[in-house]
Specification:
Structural class: alpha/beta
Number of domains: 2
Mean pLDDT: 92
Low-confidence stretches: none
Distance between the termini: 27 Å
Shape: globular
CATH architecture of the largest domain: Alpha-Beta Barrel
Number of strands: 15
Number of helices: 14
Oligomer: single chain
Order of helices and strands: EHEHEHEHHEHEHHEEHEEEHEHEHEEHH
Strand order of the largest sheet: 7-8-6-5-4-3-2-1-9
CATH class of the largest domain: Alpha Beta
Strand content: 15-25%
Radius of gyration: 20 Å
């Protein structure tokens, strides 16, 4: 199950999620709305994983986290993750997370270079991350993910290598590498699209440079035993995200909170996007679900399953229009009965998925 906590101390320039800084009254009412949604569920299965995403759920009071966890069946879960922003992790908070059942922490580092961080609105430093990773380790929370973004304003080949050096130095077993998304849902993306100058938009690396950063990360992480198992995710053996693998393998999941998504194997549904509307609907006794659609059983294996390095069964999709052409062009490959993206196919995956579905 997934729980959305869309509240942040500040809105990062690159962020295109339904999150941000909201009034205190809303942040106080929101957990009660989530609890009400949770208590109304008739569980068809027992969750193996819990994931708190955001926003910045690490800024939530730990007692609230514990009280909501008390209503979730299946504890101890195989994996319980909380996303955290560096700069606010204390020994007391880490201990409270562990007491509440958290056993994995995903750190939104994005970069270890102070100048790059400053231009996004982030306030932590590499040294802060190092200190807090040590705190987590001392508390027994050693299953840590580090998020990085390739393509931030001012990023260079040298600065990207420095960030990768820090990853190796800290020894985290899982790393996520996201290429900067340019769309008008973020302030930086909108500025880039309109050829503006704010937020460092003129200094964003080119698409070719971003691709080079990504390929360097693939090579560097592999050299230290952190292999790519999904387009944006890398892990030491045994540290792959159990929760996220469920998404890509099309297993059922339930989402709670604003803009959370759910899937039961046949239908997909989404809660209202804004935290304010989500709370208002709860207070008025109205459903928080905004939309229901039938799952695309034919197309989803391509844009979900092909993201995984393990690929998908070839026999079930070999006749799909476009597959043979992508095999000839070297964007797909087939081996041991599995269809996979090639390294070049990974870089062009959006184009491959768009045609196949």
């Amino acid at each position: 199950m997934y729980v959305s906590y869309p509240f942040c101390a500040q809105k990062c320039t690159y962020c295109n999620f339904a999150s941000g800084v909201f009034p205190r009254e809303l942040s106080e009412a929101y957990p009660e709305a989530v609890r009400a949604e949770l208590l109304a569920v008739q569980w068809q299965w027992i969750p193996e994983t819990v994931y708190w995403g955001g926003g910045t759920p690490s800024q939530m009071d730990s007692s609230i986290l514990a009280s909501i966890h008390a209503e979730i069946p299946g504890r101890p879960w195989r994996e319980a993750t909380i996303e955290a922003a560096p700069g606010g992790i204390t020994r007391e908070k880490a201990a409270a997370w562990q007491a509440a059942g958290i056993n994995r922490v995903s750190l939104g580092v994005q970069s270890f270079i102070t100048k790059e961080l400053a231009r996004t609105g982030r306030k932590h430093t590499a040294e802060v991350v190092e200190h807090e990773v040590a705190i987590l380790g001392e508390s027994g929370l050693t299953n840590i993910n580090i998020d990085l973004i390739a393509g931030l304003p001012g990023q260079t080949g040298q600065s990207w290598k420095e960030s990768l050096d820090w990853v190796e130095r800290l020894g985290a077993p899982h790393v996520s590498v996201y290429m900067l998304e340019v769309d008008d849902d973020s302030r930086l993306g909108s500025e880039i699209l309109t050829l503006g100058k704010r937020y460092g938009a003129p200094d964003v690396p080119t698409e070719d440079q971003v691709a080079e950063f990504y390929e360097l990360a693939v090579e560097r992480l592999a050299s230290i035993g952190i292999a790519r198992y999904e387009i944006s995710n890398f892990a030491r053996p045994g540290f792959e995200s159990i929760h996220n693998l469920k998404y890509w393998r099309r297993e059922p999941y339930l989402g709670f909170g604003a803009d959370a998504h759910s899937f039961d194997g046949e239908m997909r549904w989404q809660n209202v996007e804004s935290a304010a509307e989500y709370v208002q609907r709860w207070q008025e006794g109205r459903p928080v679900i905004a939309e229901r659609t039938a799952a695309d059983a034919a197309g989803e294996p391509f844009f979900l399953g092909l993201r995984l390095s393990e690929g998908i069964p070839a026999a079930s999709v070999r006749s799909r229009p476009g597959v043979e052409r992508f095999l000839r062009e070297g964007l797909l490959e087939e081996s041991s009965g599995r269809l996979r993206l090639t390294p070049r196919g990974v870089l062009l995956s959006n184009e491959v998925f768009a045609e196949l579905i």
